[in-house]
Amino acid sequence: DDHNKENLFNSLNYDVAAKKRKKDLLNNKTKVQYFHQEKWIYVHKGSTKERHGYCTLGEAFNRLDFSSAILDSRRFNYVVRLLELIAKSQLTSLSGIAQKNYMNILEKVVQKVLEDQQNIRLIRELLQTLYTSLCTLVQRVGKSVLVGNINMWVHRMESILHWQQQLNNIQITRPAFKGTTFTDLPLCLQLNIMQRLSDGRDLVSLGQVAPDLQVLSEDRLLWKKLCQYHFTDRQIRKRLILSDKGQLDWKKMYFKLIRCYPRKEQYGDTLQLCRHCHILSWKGTDHPCTANNPETCSTSLSPQDFINLFRF
């Protein structure tokens, strides 16, 4: 009898364990399939803390495929700006998984910049912003403001310092191309191209390449258009600066204005919110919209608009 009872007990344990493994396997498969197939997220209209459910900033960050977005030149600056905004004030709003995902995406961004040697300054500023924020948060660890062990965050801060060092060690090599260069173009074309630069620091850097470019980079009309692109007439009137010759010094005004007002942001591609079904996704991503013409229902969101969706 004891032998039979033992066999029965082992059999029951085996059945329970088998059912549990089967259930866990099914759940895992479901989660993986769900995560990889759906690259959109539903955002509750008029969300509150009670109604938010799974629709959090961390969940949206996990679901919207930022790892692929950084490989698209139209979306790269958008994702970097979003990472910067999260680093400034939203790190504690991310779940543990979302924070890990954030660091993984940031590492991919750094590796991309190290490979193609573009947007170096942009990523340096992002890393510095993140490191400064983490220094502040880690010092307040007694208040449990960060998810995870303190040693894990110290390790992440060490990784940021290592990435900064790698970026500082980049040696940009001159390409072997011997055809027509930028300085070979007519002056009118050079100025036309320089007018496409939306950051005054890029103009200053370009002017340091060659003496002729230095002269062009000081063009008053160039800096005037840059000021008018980023700032309103009212903002400009409040920050007028005259040169020694009695003329408006547009270059000095630009750098004074960017310290006082946010610059205009423009991106090749952005996240979009469907006004009909309240689904958030990248442009061109299929989502289950019931509207007759889904393209007309989409509204582009700036990185700050994206953050604001998950504030309650």
UniProtKB/TrEMBL annotation:
GO biological process, any: protein ubiquitination
Organism: Calypte anna (Anna's hummingbird)
Pathway connected to this protein: Protein modification; protein ubiquitination
InterPro entries for the chain: F-box-like_dom_sf, FBX25/32
GO cellular component: cytoplasm; nucleus; SCF ubiquitin ligase complex
Keywords: Cytoplasm, Nucleus, Ubl conjugation pathway
Extent of the signal sequence: none
Protein's name in the database: F-box only protein 32
Compartment list: Cytoplasm; Nucleus
Function: Substrate recognition component of a SCF (SKP1-CUL1-F-box protein) E3 ubiquitin-protein ligase complex which mediates the ubiquitination and subsequent proteasomal degradation of target proteins. Probably recognizes and binds to phosphorylated target proteins during skeletal muscle atrophy. Recognizes TERF1.
